[in-house]
Amino acid sequence: MVGHMPFDRSTGTTITLSNLFHGWPKDRLAQVYTASTEPSTEVCEKLLHFPPREHYLPPQYYALRMLGWNGSTPLQGIPAIAAVREAADRRRAVAAVYAHLVALADLSPLHVPPRVVRWLRDYQPDVVYSMLGSVRLTRLAFRAAEVCGVPLVPHFTDDWPATLYPHGELGGIAERALRSAVRKLIRLAPAGMAISEPMAEEYQRRYGIPFEIFANSVDADFFATPQPQPVGRDRPVTNLVYVGALHLDRWRSLLNIAASAEAISAAANPVRLTMHCPAEDVERYRRAFAGHPQVHFGRSLASHEVSDALAAADILVHVESFAEDTRRYTRYSVSTKIPQYLAAGRPIFGHGPAELASMAYIRSARAGVVVGVQDPDLVTEQLWKLCLDTSSWHEFGRNGRTHAERHHRRERVAARFADVLRKAAEQGERRQVGAGGWS
């Protein structure tokens, strides 16, 4: 497995990875990762940290150190780049400068030292798997498969190949390099993985190989939550709960829901929106919600605490951004938390562009209500209706849980995931035999 983050349960991506590889024999799994993060050995014990100081060439590495980089933390943390990033939120011209800086680091030549090559070959993998996410990681995954002479299975969870460099960064060089890296990688892939059915269909058309669908899966803890109790004399407040990050402009859609909660509370029964977000997001966006007394920032949650937070909800909230760039990036994505929401047996209130796969998924599971347009009055109307119609909570919750049982049970998903990788490895073996070696 090749990736930026090691196996742990600190982000949506690493939670999904840990669940997909659940039950995998530890002696049959190894990972190369680039982030300076302490790994978990819950899933994988054979780990190789490949830090930036090794995969950047010396001139690049020391140039970055001169900018204030410590050689281990993400490049975005360099004071000079961080300052540009903060300003980019406010000024379009500065955002363009930041995009060029990111592209320059991403496209810099990748150096794979002999010790990494030896480690890869000594392990003798049957297949390489990666969620990719950048030109640099795409090149690293390709290099790992190439030096080991094995097939590669890419797993796409967002449409980053079509949206990472949309504004001609580095004079268009960044987009061309990205397309070239992905096309080159696809040549080693007998099959790919996508996070949703729309993505699988689009990527099969785009890249000409079959794609299997794998989103996050959930364990038994999420299915054990009790049924919600109707709001009444003992529980006068309808509790909306959002669990997740605020980046990708999701905070703006949450502001719409916060305003609706305030309007409903003023006219009828009180509604409270509790948001459990990463600590850095709370610090960055708290001020935007200061004028909304119905909003409560709950504490940031560890992965094992999420099921209890969902059980405390009457209605679960999922949002996506209406910003054009972001909706292109997330159009085929299904958030890590949606399978968790479905398994929790709570109604879901979704607010984001109707064409996004995540919103379509809530509708297809018949697990809640989706407002797919940016219309504050409609958001208030539909949220109010859902808050009042407590009889629908059980129906939506039952539908969601049934869907999660069928499609997101961790043991079933992990077994199917292992089978797809096994078949990819077998196809690679046949290709090697037929070609007299990997081409």
From TrEMBL:
Q: Highest taxon of the source?
A: Bacteria
Matching InterPro entries: Glyco_trans_4-like_N, Glycosyltransferase_grp1
Output one GO BP term: carbohydrate derivative biosynthetic process
Which molecular function GO terms apply here? glycosyltransferase activity
What are the record keywords, sorted?
Glycosyltransferase, Transferase
**Residue limits of the Glycosyltransferase subfamily 4-like N-terminal domain?**
109-221
UniProt protein name: Glycosyl transferase family 1
